[in-house]
């Protein structure tokens, strides 16, 4: 089963935007996200609609954060991405009439719902500022004073 890593990739790009002086082009962000500029534009369009980023046109244009890091939560970013599933596991639906499958799915369904609710709640409390602070601490602990490992 393929995992959806868009949230992680977007957070990576947003932290680069936060530390960059001025707008970042889709091409530069594509390098950060290991994807192509079309994917960046498509992905950031949802974030623009939620007021998380904005695009600036022109020669020196590109993408910038539309709000302070403290005002952007992981929950908002997750929502802007279309609320992709948070868990890669799922229950079986091969034989819905099977009473064993029904019992297993009921137990798993409750557990999955509780886990997703806990993740969503946690996402509402984590801001981009907290991630940026954590990055800065890690960066300082490694004694770096420039870009970090090219990513």
UniProtKB/TrEMBL annotation:
GO terms for cellular component: cytosol. It comes from the Bacteria. GO terms for molecular function: DNA-binding transcription factor activity. InterPro entries: Tscrpt_reg_Rrf2, WH-like_DNA-bd_sf, WH_DNA-bd_sf. Transmembrane segments: none annotated. Pfam families: Rrf2. This is Rrf2 family transcriptional regulator. It comes from Arsenicitalea aurantiaca. The lineage of its organism: Bacteria, Pseudomonadati, Pseudomonadota, Alphaproteobacteria, Hyphomicrobiales.
